[in-house]
Amino acid sequence: MAGKLTALEKSRRAAAHPDRPGERCHAPAGTWLPLVDPNRCEAKGDCVEVCPHDVFLVGPIDPSAYATLGLLGKLRNRAHGGRTATTPGATDCRACGLCVVACPEGAITLRPPPEPPTIGP
Ligand code: SF4
Ligand code: SF4
């Protein structure tokens, strides 16, 4: 049976993933926004392990966030100890995209910066 991957192996695998979004860590900090869907999160912390900028924290879900979950999300959250990932360091995100492809639950999206307004004729 294969052993668990180390954090370095997870990061390497995520770095080679063909669907990795973002700007390969070249974005100015805080221009892209990592978002966690707490309905999907299973709180096992792969995002914490692969993020090079310490954006994520896994801990007890905030009661107000728990209240917004759907029924399945509540059941999932309870099954995982009432914990979830949050992004207290979101302003340090440089859009490497590793977290998105490393998350086994597809719970993370990266929101790109808003388009600059076009100046029309
Ligand atoms: S990798 Fe995904 S499922 Fe795991 S703790 Fe992070 S957001 Fe949650
Ligand atoms: S894209 Fe994800 S892994 Fe990369 S810096 Fe941002 S939050 Fe961290």
Can you tell me about this structure?
With 121 residues, the chain is α+β, with helices and mostly antiparallel strands. It has a domain at 33-110: Alpha-Beta Plaits (2-Layer Sandwich), CATH 3.30.70.20. The chain has helices spanning 7-15, 46-50, 63-67, 71-79, 98-102; strands at residues 33-36, 57-60, 83-86, 108-111. The strands form 2 sheets. The protein has a two-stranded antiparallel sheet with strand order 1-4. Strands 2-3 form a two-stranded antiparallel sheet. It is globular. The relative contact order is 0.29. The structure holds iron/sulfur cluster (SF4) (2 copies). Residues 36, 41-47, 58, 85, 103, 105, 107-108 line the site of one iron/sulfur cluster (SF4).
Query: Can you tell me the CATH class of the domain at 33-110?
Result: Alpha Beta
Give the biggest beta sheet.
2 strands, antiparallel
What is the H/E order? HEHEHHEHE
Taken from the alpha-carbon principal axes, the silhouette is globular
Q: How large, in whole angstroms, is the Cα Rg? A: 16 Å
Order of strands, main sheet, comes to 1-4
Helicity level: 25-40%
In oligomeric terms, what are we looking at? single chain
Low-confidence stretches: none
Terminal residue distance: 64 Å
For this structure, the CATH topology of the domain at 33-110 is Alpha-Beta Plaits
Secondary structure tally: strands: 4
Classify the beta-strand content into a percent band: 5-15%
Tally of separate helices: 5
Mean pLDDT: 95
